[in-house]
Amino acid sequence: MDDEWICGRLGEDEPWALGAVNPPVFENSLFTFRTAQELGEAIRSEDERYVYWRGTNPTVDLAQRKLAALERGERAKCFGSGMGAISATISSLVKAGDHVLVLGAVYGPTTQFLRYLEKFGVTHTHVNDLAECDSAIRASTRLLYFESPSYMAYAVVDIAEVTAWARERGLVSVMDNTWSTPIFQKPLTMGVDLVVHSLSKYIGGHSDLVGGVVVGPSRLIRPLALTEYQLYGAAMSPHDAAKVIKGLRTLPVRMAAHQERGLAVAGFLTGHPAVRAVNHPGLPSHPGHDIAKRQMSGFSSLFSLVLDTESREEVGLFLDKLQHFRIGVSWGGFESLVNAPALSTEESVRATMGIPVGLVRLSVGLEPADTLIKDLGLALEGVGRLA
């Protein structure tokens, strides 16, 4: 199936939509049955049958079908937040005594959740590459978790190589694909077992919803849907699912525009005397660019730069001088955003991820690139060597 057709039309022409151009939003919290036997049968398959909102809902189900098709997966399960999806997915795969390998830098709250699991006897180790994986793997290791491109540093992982390594050792691999979206990267086709996303970012696209999803084979999704999804209670609301569906309709067009503007801004920053490095996989100068071109069909507009400074105060001043980039923690919407981990991230987490003081994350939105470039140029005056 074509991605644009999946985003715009998959499941929207079925009889229950009654010809509505926008699929109906099912607001009811429960569904009733004609007989007690029908209710019993539905409860036993509550991951697929409509019983109670906490299980699933027709509007949520449509969003799940679209997301599964986009990722080329058998099934998807939507959650009330990205961390709802991540925590439920990890929990479904480990038990007391198990060990998790974390490859590269990952989303800060994911690391915090893994630390939280330590009180239940689940341990983890952060590694930087496959050589370190070979040294860190244990008999109790069950899961390999990673992002590509990685959190804040935007290093590129060779997905096929990493998943082959994990498969040979009997590990389940889980990858966060929020940065690329399924439009630009499909990890399941390269051997990843489960893919997670924050739907709050590019897929939603308008900074008006919080949601998450996990996609993969039914053998892994069904037990998660019947257990962790139900017990953790992080159910997606039908209204948020409707926003996901609307966001998907414009996702291919938006991602193309984000790519164009992001590369223009990154190109301007490359070689700027106040900038030590630009971490954007779409740039030929990026060390993972060749791998990225092989496994990705495009590049989003989230990347980082490293200012020529070791001063947190100077980083804060740079942010404050920006007029068009708004200061905020999320990304993926129309508006351009800026954030600096040294000002907002727990120092121990930042140290684990190898994030320098001068690193600044930019989310290039859909405003004109020349406006954003001018804004950055003025804010960079006086940074580091130019002071």
TrEMBL record:
Residues annotated with N6-(pyridoxal phosphate)lysine modification: K201
Keyword rRNA-binding among record annotations: no
SUPFAM superfamilies for this protein: PLP-dependent transferases
Catalytic activity field: L-homocysteine + H2O = 2-oxobutanoate + hydrogen sulfide + NH4(+) + H(+); L-methionine + H2O = methanethiol + 2-oxobutanoate + NH4(+)
Protein name: homocysteine desulfhydrase
Originating organism: Nonomuraea jabiensis
Membrane-spanning parts: none
Phylogenetic lineage: Bacteria, Bacillati, Actinomycetota, Actinomycetes, Streptosporangiales
The entry's keywords: Lyase, Pyridoxal phosphate
UniProt xrefs under CDD domains: CGS_like
Cofactor(s) essential for the protein: pyridoxal 5'-phosphate
Listed GO biological process terms: transsulfuration
Matching Pfam families: Cys_Met_Meta_PP
